[in-house]
Specification:
This protein has 303 residues and is mainly alpha-helical. Helix content is 72%, strand content 0%. It is built from 11 helices and no strands. The protein has helices spanning 2-17, 27-54, 65-73, 86-103, 108-129, 142-153, 162-179, 190-208, 217-249, 251-255, 262-300. It is globular. The N and C termini lie far apart (44 Å). The relative contact order is 0.13.
Length: 303
């Protein structure tokens, strides 16, 4: 899911920010919109973690001021308060590079080339000079570049029929999980991941672009699920924490196979995330967009 999302993120940033060859949005407006989209709901989840920690959950958490500061600002850390937030740190890293390209008013192709070159240079420098476990040395950032390159070429790209490409990509991801050695369920080794999951993710996203479902109920349902996806992503760890506590306190459950329970847990995660989107995230987004509205109106005035 993360690999597909990173490819989508690279694609959407280029597609939405370059209506033509030149950027259609300023760097300041871009960062403000990204801030409103990412931080308010994320901070809400951090507050929930703090409350749960006070109630006895998250006992392994050591909320020192330094850890909390990095968590609040989404700075690189090896001790994330919200475990899945490591991906958001990479998102902000990519956004800053993208904002720099917008600030310099590079054309679309120059921006894609410049950002890709910067990511490759930082990755190479980190691998050559720094710790191989360092933030900048993770090649997963190449997946942003895959998405950006796709955005520049997709109108001229002719891939296999959509559902075949999506099925092939998902099958490749499953096969990689079976045949590429990895120690935990957190993901494949970074170097292998970009190939084993990143390339299939690129195929899935590229194939999805040719789906012919405009105006259908399926499209509306998928679009709504997409709107909920950020809330689902940030809230599903809370469901898993509760589920883990139930299993731990019920010896019979801990001794049996939990595979039959997985679909129900997934549905609960989806439902909890959708509810969080409707009740909390959407209201935060509306409030943030109202704050940005005067700025957009001022920007639209003639100079």
């Amino acid at each position: 899911g993360v690999d597909i999302f990173f490819v989508i993120s690279g694609f959407v940033m280029v597609y939405a920010s370059f209506a033509s060859e030149r950027p259609s949005i300023g760097a300041g407006t871009f960062l403000a919109k990204r801030f409103v989209r990412i931080y308010p709901f994320y901070w809400t989840c951090l507050l929930l973690i703090l409350i749960l920690w006070g109630l006895g959950f998250y006992r392994k958490l050591d909320p020192t001021p330094g850890i909390w500061l990095r968590a609040v600002l989404l700075l690189p850390t090896d001790q994330p308060v919200l475990t899945v937030s490591w991906t958001l740190v990479y998102e902000m890293y990519f956004y800053m590079l993208f904002a720099a390209a917008l600030f310099l008013q590079w054309s679309r192709h120059v921006a894609v080339f410049g950002i890709t070159t910067a990511i490759a240079a930082l990755l190479a420098a980190s691998l050559l000079l720094g710790d191989r476990e360092d933030f900048l040395s993770n090649p997963i950032v190449i997946e942003f570049c895959m998405g950006m390159l796709l955005a520049t070429a997709f109108r001229r790209l002719h891939v296999m029929p959509a559902w075949i490409g999506i099925a092939a990509g998902l099958s490749a991801i499953v096969l990689a999980s079976l045949f590429v050695p990895h120690e935990t369920t957190n993901g494949l080794p970074p170097a292998a991941r970009v190939v084993a999951w990143g390339l299939p993710a690129l195929l899935i996203v590229a194939s999805s672009l040719s789906l012919k479902a405009v105006g259908s109920r399926l499209e509306r349902a998928m679009a709504w699920l997409g709107d909920c996806s950020y809330a689902i992503y940030l809230t599903h760890p809370f469901v898993m924490v509760v589920f883990a506590r139930i299993v731990k306190n019920q010896p019979r459950l801990s001794e049996m196979s939990l595979l039959p329970v997985v679909p129900f847990v997934v549905l609960i995660c989806l439902a909890a995330g959708a509810a969080a989107h409707v009740l909390i995230e959407r209201r935060l987004l509306d409030f943030g967009r109202r704050l940005l509205a005067p700025r957009r109106s001022e920007a639209a005035l003639p100079r």
